[in-house]
Amino acid sequence: MAFQLHPQLAADTVKLGDFPLCSVLLAKDALYPWCILVPRRDEIREIHRLSEADQQQLLKESSLLAATMEQLFSAEKMNIAALGNMVPQLHLHHVARFSNDLAWPSPIWGRFAAQAYSEAALAERVSQLKQTLNEYFVA
């Protein structure tokens, strides 16, 4: 069975590219710089259920994405979480946080309704991230 992205993740994100293990997605919420990593492995809900090699690769890819976002957006704090309560497919949220963002210092989950990007702002954010991450994407 070929890997398929969960329909909710597909609806709520824009795909930026693929790292060796994970698809890299941008959440369609303009309130926060917010990316999501999804390991391209079927039927995996938990990190500990990945092979040891995949766990190590996930950590590498998560660290790369977090460092890139921290630098690109001058984040004060990177929030990284694997919740999965609403979407069972394993995915890791990477959210750049700032002391002046709407939810600070609380978690972002359920605090405010997502704010859609304008077409121009979404295109700019996608371009910015793709240009920065492109060298790490696999064909």
TrEMBL record:
<dbReference type="Pfam" id="PF01230">
    <property type="entry name" value="HIT"/>
</dbReference>
<dbReference type="InterPro" id="IPR011146">
    <property type="entry name" value="HIT-like"/>
</dbReference>
<dbReference type="GO" id="GO:0003824">
    <property type="term" value="F:catalytic activity"/>
</dbReference>
<protein>
    <submittedName>
        <fullName>HIT family protein</fullName>
    </submittedName>
</protein>
<feature type="domain" description="HIT">
    <location>
        <begin position="36"/>
        <end position="104"/>
    </location>
</feature>
<dbReference type="InterPro" id="IPR026026">
    <property type="entry name" value="HIT_Hint"/>
</dbReference>
<dbReference type="InterPro" id="IPR036265">
    <property type="entry name" value="HIT-like_sf"/>
</dbReference>
